[in-house]
């Protein structure tokens, strides 16, 4: 029973966020998610910016080759799925893919590495009780982060629609599609149904984006935690295959998030 309780405490501790406040509105603001995602964003911007500044037309180095491979992959997906013209879609898609991949890839770090380091820092420099120092290192296993990403995509979708059709054209589409009427009376009568369906379609996009990413990464994080509870030799036997398989999950989830964003933006600039 003690071992079971110890395992339970271990799991609960690893699934508890470092919060700005323990109660009230700001209790939902997770500092670990914010700072890890921010640092990874700077890592992405720094590495790709450095490669761009040092790019050469001669024989490229390995890092430049790798970055060019990613850029070409993203560019090919845009050409296949996006039928409009935009200077934003390229940088946006590249940022989404690499940033989401980096946040997902934090799952590959040993489960106890950064949390134990945070406990040591908290105890050594701030006198904090290690049992009350929490750190979750996979931002995309936090539904707040995935919803923030998807809501940002929703704002961009609306912006693309308004830019392509004009504000009143966008409003007109919300009220007149997918059901069309021949006269003004029929248009007015069908407007509530059209608006309802348009809103369902519009908000289903960020919800599906966020929950798909969150569900896969939360499940992956939980499995790594459960494997870490096993004896060391079982940990190696089970952990290595799962980590190899998880490479596919991490990459696929970043790719799917990027491709769906491109598709949604393509739909936003097209007329019904």
Automatic annotation (TrEMBL):
Record keywords, A-Z: ATP synthesis, Cell membrane, CF(0), Hydrogen ion transport, Ion transport, Membrane, Transmembrane, Transmembrane helix, Transport
The UniProt record lists the keyword Transferase: no
SUPFAM superfamilies in alphabetical order: F1F0 ATP synthase subunit A
Stretches that traverse the bilayer: 34-52, 88-106, 143-162, 213-234, 240-267
Subcellular location: Cell membrane; Membrane
Domain of life: Bacteria
Membrane topology recorded in Swiss-Prot or TrEMBL: Multi-pass membrane protein
Family membership: Belongs to the ATPase A chain family.
Matches recorded under NCBIfam families: ATP_synt_6_or_A, PRK05815.1-1
The name this protein goes by in its record: ATP synthase subunit a
Gene source species: Chitiniphilus purpureus
Lineage of origin: Bacteria, Pseudomonadati, Pseudomonadota, Betaproteobacteria, Neisseriales
Gene: atpB
């Amino acid at each position: 029973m003690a071992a079971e309780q110890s395992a339970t405490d271990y799991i609960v501790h690893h699934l508890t966020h470092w919060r700005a406040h323990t109660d009230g509105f700001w209790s939902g603001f997770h500092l670990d998610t914010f700072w890890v995602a921010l640092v990874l964003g700077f890592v992405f911007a720094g590495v790709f910016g450095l490669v761009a500044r040092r790019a050469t037309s001669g024989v490229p180095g390995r890092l430049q080759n790798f970055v060019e491979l990613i850029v070409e992959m993203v560019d090919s997906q845009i050409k296949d799925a996006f039928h409009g013209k935009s200077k934003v879609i390229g940088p946006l898609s590249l940022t989404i893919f690499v940033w989401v991949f980096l946040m997902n890839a934090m799952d590959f770090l040993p489960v106890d590495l950064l949390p134990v380091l945070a406990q040591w820092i908290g105890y050594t420099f701030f006198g904090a009780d290690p049992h009350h120092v929490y750190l979750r290192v996979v931002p995309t296993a936090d539904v707040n982060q995935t919803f923030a990403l998807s809501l940002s995509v929703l704002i961009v979708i609306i912006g693309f629609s308004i830019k392509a059709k004009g504000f009143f054209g966008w409003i007109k589409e919300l009220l007149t599609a997918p059901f069309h009427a021949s006269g003004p009376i029929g248009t007015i009568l069908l407007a509530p149904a059209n608006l309802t369906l348009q809103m369902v379609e519009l908000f289903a996009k960020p919800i599906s984006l966020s929950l798909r990413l969150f569900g896969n990464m939360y499940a992956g994080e939980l499995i790594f935690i459960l494997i870490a509870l096993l004896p060391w030799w079982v940990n190696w036997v089970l952990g290595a295959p799962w980590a190899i398989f998880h490479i596919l999950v991490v990459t696929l989830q970043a790719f799917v998030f990027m491709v769906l964003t491109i598709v949604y933006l393509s739909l936003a600039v097209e007329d019904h």
